[in-house]
Amino acid sequence: MNSLFFLLSGEHETLPAAEVLAILESEGYKYQDVRFAPKLLTLTADRSCIEKVVKRAGMCNLGGLTLFQTENCENEIFRRASEVLYLDHLGYKEKFIVRTLRLFGSSRHLDRKRIESVIGGLISAAVPTSIVDPVRYNKEFLGIIGEKFLFGIVVSRSHRLSLTKHAPKLRPAIHPSTIQPKLARSLVNLARARPGDTFIDPFCGVGGILIEAAAIGCRVVGSDISPEMVKKSLLNFRYLKLEPYGLLVADAKNLPYPRVFSLATDPPYGR
Question: Of 35, 118, 151, 263, which is least surrounded by CB within 10 A?
Fold first, then answer.
């Protein structure tokens, strides 16, 4: 078990953190020592979970290995940074960078550039063969200034290319009530969907939620009472080169599904 951190996107107070925990549960990872802070989630789990979480999540920007946390005091930050065994994390002639990030204007008395410079010097002194390279680095050390100062190594960053490609405005069939891919992906993850599971959306509309379930490897089945919506959903799937397991016209009050593993939906309001 390792001390891990996840930097969240911050669109909602609790949803991004709940999504991360749901992904861990759906992928079978045990976790403990969960701590919540604005835009930041820390916990203890196997570090192999980081890439899976960041790849799947709609509202997680990055994940990494926590090296230490301390109060927002410069002397204490430098003291703790000097105690890290950097040889355990940097290889021979490995290129690295030190970055800092301030959340919500926290602790303005801390100078980000000074912290980066001092800790970068500590790392170079501890691993003389290492190379500071802000462009071609393969190891990123990150300090996060929030309620406390967290220092760690970034393991995986989200580039959200698939979510960008799935934007409603880029699809051939649209509807004004379609939810954005980030939220749709989060709903899929909150349902604890797993790759290979049958995933159901009984109010599929033009397929926004189903598309994100298919993108993580689910067998998706969608239905809608409107034949036009079902046709538009199929059109979007074909455009994105995704394959639904089934799309059908059906009333949500009398669903024909014999078995459901995971379900998420966005019901039509006012009906």
Answer: 35
